[in-house]
Every structure is written in C-alpha cells, then in structure tokens.
Amino acid sequence: MAAQVTLEDALSNVDLLEELPLPDQQPCIEPPPSSLLYQPNFNTNFEDRNAFVTGIARYIEQATVHSSMNEMLEEGQEYAVMLYTWRSCSRAIPQRNAIERFCGEVRRLCHAERRKDFVSEAYLITLGKFINMFAVLDELKNMKCSVKNDHSAYKRAAQFLRKMADPQSIQESQNLSMFLANHNKITQSLQQQLEVISGYEELLADIVNLCVDYYENRMYLTPSEKHML
C-alpha cells in the first residue's frame, strides 16, 4: 500500500523542481530585449532633404535655402518680442542680414532662366513672411518711444567718456541714431535694394496674389497667417 503524501510534502517537492538542472544543448541566438522610444517630430525644417535624391538638384537647393530662411524668420520673431517687451536700445539694430538675404533670393528668382522654373507655394509664403516681418519690426520701432529715450540717455552718458570712446563705437552710435530717427527705415532700405533688381515686381505680384488667395479662400489657421500682407 502506497504511503500517503501530505499537501505540504507535495508542495515542497514541486519547489524542488525549480532547482532541477535541465541542460539545453541549443545555442541562444536571440539577443536580449531592449526598449525603443520613438518621438515624432513634424517640424523638421527640411532636415530630411538629403534623403530625397533626385535627378534635379534645384529642389534640394530650394529646401536648403528654405530651411535657412525659416531660421532667420525665427530670429526676426525674437527681435519683435524683444522690441515689444524690453527697453534695450541694443536690440533695435536693423535686420541688415535678413534684408540682404531676402534681396538675394529675389534677385536669384528674378533671373531670366529662373523665371522658367517652378517655385513652390511654401517658398513664396516664406518670402511673404519675410516682408511681414520687416513691416512688424518697423512698426514696433516706430511705436516704442522707450527705445529712443534709452538711446538719448545713453548718448548723454557717453559724452563724459568721449575721450575714451573709439571711432568704431562713435560710428555705431551715429548709425543707430540715424536708424531710430527715420521712420520705416527697414522697409525703406528693403525698397531701395529691391528697386535695382530687374523683374522684382512680378515676383512680388506672385507673393501678393498667393496671400490674397489664401485670405479669400480662408486657407489660414492663425491671425498672423490671415494678416500676413
């Protein structure tokens, strides 16, 4: 007659099975698991342009220029915020680099051979944002009296240190005084540089017509897009 096994003995025997060696001659070919974190970023600013290699390199060139212009637009937005909220006259320096870059792109697109190529709507909208940025910076400069008052206080304080001031500082102060004294200086400088470019009216007409089409068909999302030009 078989001996009776209690429940405690049966459970202990089951626990002993965990220590039973079971050698496996098969090699382990599976790697250890690792966690992956994917975070989508839809605002790539054309960073993936090199992945789309085509037979026509001008589209990659346009994406490269578009990316750099978006960076300058962000810098212009920072200048607008500083002019609107701060009282620092050093932030009122005109956007010379942005104006030169904008006029350079207009000159390139107005070339006789370039006029035959296709220009995307996104690129024209970016140029429209540049024009809007220049107008916003001009109006902020005109309405902020604190910038002119701070610069006047700076010039009065600098008169006591005129012997210690170098010619470069004096020239920068004079340029800043002329810039603050003239209203719409940024847009006037832009207009002067655009007038020497042949065929710039057609490009500006394309930009204006596109912005009007977006406005009439309500193809905008934010107030800045609605009142671009």
UniProtKB/TrEMBL annotation:
GO BP annotations listed: regulation of actin filament polymerization
InterPro entries: Cytoplasmic_FMR1-int
One example GO MF annotation: small GTPase binding
Domain of life: Eukaryota
Protein name: Cytoplasmic FMR1 interacting protein 1
Taxonomic source organism: Mus musculus
Upper taxonomic lineage: Eukaryota, Metazoa, Chordata, Craniata, Vertebrata
